[in-house]
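Subject: Interface between my chains keeps coming out wrong

I've been trying for a while to get a sensible model of this assembly. When I model each chain on its own everything looks fine, but I need the whole thing in one frame so I can look at the contacts. Pasting all components below, labels as-is. Any help appreciated, I'm running out of ideas.
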Amino acid sequence: MKDFTEWFENVLDQAGLVDTRYPVKGMYVWLPYGMQLRGRVLGILRRLLEETGHQEVLFPLLIPEDQFAKEAEHIRGFEDQVYWVTRGGGSDLDVRLVLRPTSETAMYPMFSLWIRSHADLPLKVYQVVSVFRCETKMTKPLIRVREVTTFKEAHTVHATAEDAERQVREAVEIYKRFFDELGIPYLITRRPPWDTFAGAEYSIAFDTVSPEGKTLQIGTVHNLGQKFSQVFRIRYLDRDGNHRLAYQTCYGISERVIASLIFTHGDELGPCFPPKVAPIQVVIVPIPFEGFDPLPLAREVKERLERVQLRVQLDGGEERPGEKYYKWERRGVPLRIEIGPEEVRQRKVTAVPRDTRERLEVPLADLEARIPELLGELGERLRRRAWERLKERIVEASSFEELKGEGVIGRIFWCGREECARQVEEQLGLSMLGMEVEDPSVGKCLVCGREGKRAVVARTY
Amino acid sequence: MKDFTEWFENVLDQAGLVDTRYPVKGMYVWLPYGMQLRGRVLGILRRLLEETGHQEVLFPLLIPEDQFAKEAEHIRGFEDQVYWVTRGGGSDLDVRLVLRPTSETAMYPMFSLWIRSHADLPLKVYQVVSVFRCETKMTKPLIRVREVTTFKEAHTVHATAEDAERQVREAVEIYKRFFDELGIPYLITRRPPWDTFAGAEYSIAFDTVSPEGKTLQIGTVHNLGQKFSQVFRIRYLDRDGNHRLAYQTCYGISERVIASLIFTHGDELGPCFPPKVAPIQVVIVPIPFEGFDPLPLAREVKERLERVQLRVQLDGGEERPGEKYYKWERRGVPLRIEIGPEEVRQRKVTAVPRDTRERLEVPLADLEARIPELLGELGERLRRRAWERLKERIVEASSFEELKGEGVIGRIFWCGREECARQVEEQLGLSMLGMEVEDPSVGKCLVCGREGKRAVVARTY
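Reply #2:
Try treating it as a single job with all components included. I did that and got this:
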């Protein structure tokens, strides 16, 4: 993969996922194949959220300016990148409306109406919506966009700080399971104060790494404390009849997860989708040869695999087999089944996993058992390799020198002070992602030598 | 139902479907229960569309002004009711962006890139999105809103006028099946020219009727001819190598279908959801009595019904049974099962359909067979009654006098001229819905006596 950006946009185009030619910068069209992939990925996320008691809601897109401006830090964090609706129905609006960049200020005024007593808590809701950010940086499909078309945002309200803290941990667990199911490797860090969500007490972020060695933020979990509940008056009556201010959290995932899926499991040719979410899991390519018609067997195989709930496409088109292989590889179908004269004669199929390109013989009698197994093994292989690749980049560094390689992700000790982080940034071009959430070890700050904790530095998008 | 508007907003509130207190006029919050209902309704629609070869896509929300303005009739039809984004990222935008009121002008420039030859046709796509209309009329939740949160719009492209015509018929069939599954009765008319979709050759509309006797447009199908394909240059190479202009159709359904579900099958107390889409199909209310604990049996019944794929809620709360009955009736649960001492003793349950309120005894042994049957019968009953109620309102009129009753829907003969329609409007307050699509009979125009066709007039929203 020489030029990542070029490769990525090529893949999107050739795989038929997204059309990047929409005439507004940073906004894209989801094509049917992309929508199917997106639907399956969201399906996993929804299941994980519902299993943990989150309920789906849907709030309006437009937020009145006065609500949006209520929490001072929040508006300061977002005002430079929001879109404003100023006209409607042929005249100027009395109150300008902001296209939600995120929904705290749309939801929380309603939460204050919904929550009366401790019996209403915890409140755990989520929605999947478009949010808008007028990005000034270079846009990139699925990665830096102006309409985030696939924003899953969850918002919770709790009686105590401990409950909110527990919810943050639950959210981190949900996201770990989510990315694990997709085989996307991640680093979990607590963002430094200057990179904390506008209005949060603290933010925990998931980052993955691109093939060019830059980290990409793919999920965030924020403990909002009482900052918003104070402003929006979200209070409840406790068991003793006292009015108390609630505690809140929120956490989000965007279509960057789709970008990560593509580049994490991709190669020169294009993506290889994990079988769990691949719109087509198996493509069957019949190989006609004089005197042999492979189509009846191909149809039988399709039917039998569909009966065990696999998503199968039989490519009976006019192209030559080689062209078909190429086409479906570029579309990321994880397993190809070839059926030619040999296969018909010997009552078998040849299965070719997209990643290894091994040619595996599967007797017809074993079809229903073996093909799902091959898909499972492939998914596991994708996940393991992705984690290996991430780990290979990690350097446990105790000197600047060790961090100088191409695409290095540095694990260092850091005292937590901004000036030390800035020195790393200036001298190495590596940003401070934050302290590692799951590593309690301590050591001397790489920069100043004061006591510090495990932190991660990397090139970022 | 004395005051329909009051009843309707009450029901929405008490059933926990939508919260109407969002601080922007005409914009509402979907609550979890409403989202579940909406999801099931959309599920039916998606299935019908996928079965007929429509593929889901997702286009950006924002349309640049120059694209939006390309089709002259279209912009004239919409410019008075659109919202404009004029600022973003802290400064005025070079090109103003419109919040889509519908997506023709977002989609069709892309269609012209996608379509090259006859092999690319027909193109049949749909999306489910929010669209925005800055309504100046009085807003009403789910009925007249400024953010239509549930807009299913399908768009198709065809090689010939005949194909487009055939597609219009297919769309009408899809919508008929859709409303039939929901038990919502409808009238199908071809809208008069002055009520045709801005940019269409002609429009066919589905209307249903509210309890106060006004018709509500709940679905539309438009034959766009070549009006848009000309402007957006949607051309294809035919089999003989000639460039040809394509033909187009589009058709849409909005959350008014949810409003119709509620008022069509509602009574004084609230809604009664058809079992096919009810978020909870069966609620079990245990009735404790000294010496008898109905909970074990209630749990057994729940488990057994869930095993046959029913959506069941066991209400084990503290309220008295009567309060529970009332609560679940107002939430539109179609079937209640009561389990008290008698039921435990006799190994049976008492089933109470929401509509008839009959008390039916079902032996435990028949549970898995009888309960789904009761739900099926209930759904059928809802549908039949709804159609009866619509038909009772219809008056086949050959004089103005006959059309003077409260909530009358008139079937008249009409010559097609605007001045005759205007006379009906002025003298009777009844709007011309249009010519009936499925009735070929002819007769003398009610107003002028010229030859006319079957047309429908009614009070409308």
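Reply #3:
Confirming on my end. Chain A touches chain B through 52 residues (CB under 8 Å).
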